[in-house]
Specification:
This protein has 371 residues and is an alpha/beta fold. It has one domain: Vaccinia Virus protein VP39 (Rossmann fold, 3-Layer(aba) Sandwich). It contains nine helices and seven strands, in the order αβαβαββαβαααβααβ. The chain has a seven-stranded mixed β-sheet, with helices on both faces. α4 links the parallel β4 and β5. α1 packs parallel to α2. It starts with 21 loop residues before the first helix and ends in a 9-residue tail after the last strand. Keywords: Magnesium, Metal-binding, Methyltransferase, Transferase. This is S-adenosylmethionine-dependent methyltransferase. GO terms for molecular function: metal ion binding; methyltransferase activity.
């Protein structure tokens, strides 16, 4: 599987990510208060010369729709407030609100057309541009960005670990589509975890070079709570059900067993402890805040149709690229039928995941990776 082609469902139709990402939208909303507070507290307004340089913001893994617009708007409003509060500073009388240049980054296959139609339909008070490319590598010059943002994007691995597709490996994940699926060997999880560590290292390396000293970065990501086994998580239930639907279709001859055995989903759900340790070990960023966010939709009983659409918009392109477009409708119909009979949507005992907000500041005293 070529993970450079991963993207959410584009457009603005009934099966689009733009219209089925309420969970992600609520996370961005929950983070607004704490992010505004931390920008006021941590932003050094002297990191740019507003007379000749814009304040540069990048959203890594922007996807498509209103969530990235909302996140960027929250950042810019907080930065503007910070600069305005310093305009009367007698020691820095030259400080004024700068112009803003915002970069929306995602892989090449992302639906940038729908994204920019939405953004410019809202008449943004900043300049915009799209930056296609993987955020696991450099996409900007050194010391170029002042603020980096990434929401629900670090779940995606840069590639599927080779071991899980190797028939000779103890990590071969035969008949399953994810490391969390029921019956998966511990070696499968280890392979995913190793790939995640490599990816986070690469992500932090790139951002450490691209951010100016003192630059800020906000990350929102979904985790499995410390001490919870992946097989006991909500995503394990969902992926096991999806995998069983594919197995049923393979048994009917709709696809081959070999085709099924060569497919795995490229998602990894870290734990808070693992993520915090990886950031600290990297060494180029101070962790200003590492905070659990409220769980979106926790007070709402999610209906099956909403749950299926939420899964479909983030996985459909992966299934189509590997199995072909003809299997989509039947796959998600089977998924809906099996999900409807499972208590995962109604029983709080299955809610062992948690979203975290991580706020980082680029250290000024450390050497830059790659320098």
């Amino acid at each position: 599987m070529d993970n450079q082609k991963i993207h959410m469902n584009g457009g603005d139709g009934p099966n689009s990510y733009a219209n089925n990402s309420e969970y992600q939208k609520q996370l961005v909303g929950y983070s607004k208060i704490v992010m505004t507070e931390l920008i006021e507290q941590e932003l050094d307004v002297g990191i740019i010369n507003p007379d000749c340089s814009p304040f540069c913001v990048a959203d890594f893994g922007c996807s498509v729709g209103g969530n990235t617009y909302l996140a960027v708007q929250n950042i810019i409003e907080a930065v503007e407030t910070k600069y305005k509060s310093n305009e009367q500073d007698q020691e820095n009388p030259q400080l004024q609100v700068p112009e803003f240049l915002v970069f929306f980054n995602d892989l090449v296959q992302n639906d940038f057309n729908t994204l920019f139609n939405y953004i410019h339909g809202n008449e943004p008070n900043y300049f915009t541009t799209g930056i296609p490319g993987s955020f696991y590598g450099r996409v900007f010059p050194k010391a170029f960005l002042h603020f980096a943002h990434s929401s629900m994007s670090l779940l995606y691995l840069s590639r599927i670990p080779e071991e899980v597709l190797d028939r000779k490996s103890t990590a071969w994940n035969k008949g399953r589509i994810h490391y969390s699926c029921s019956g998966a060997a511990k070696e499968v999880e280890a392979a995913y975890s190793n790939q995640f560590r490599k990816d986070i290292q690469a992500f932090l390396d790139a951002r450490a070079q691209e951010l100016v000293p003192g630059g800020l970065m906000a990350i929102i990501t979904l985790t499995i709570l410390d001490g919870v086994l992946p097989s006991d998580s909500p995503m394990a239930i969902n992926f096991t059900i999806l995998g069983s639907c594919l197995q049923d279709m393979a048994n009917m001859g709709i696809m081959s067993e070999e085709k099924l055995d060569s497919f795995n989903l490229p998602y990894y759900y870290t734990s808070p402890m693992e993520l915090e340790t990886l950031i600290k070990t990297h060494g180029c960023f101070d962790i200003v805040r590492f905070e659990k966010l409220p769980t979106p939709l926790r007070q709402v009983v999610i209906d099956v149709q909403t749950a299926v659409l939420s899964m479909r918009v983030v996985t459909e392109q992966l299934f189509q690229q590997h199995f072909g477009k003809d299997i989509t409708e039947e796959l998600f119909q089977r998924y809906a039928e099996k999900l409807d009979s499972h208590p995962v949507l109604k029983d709080d005992n299955y809610r062992t995941d948690a979203s975290y907000f991580v706020f980082l500041k680029r250290k000024t005293e450390t050497s830059k990776p790659g320098s």
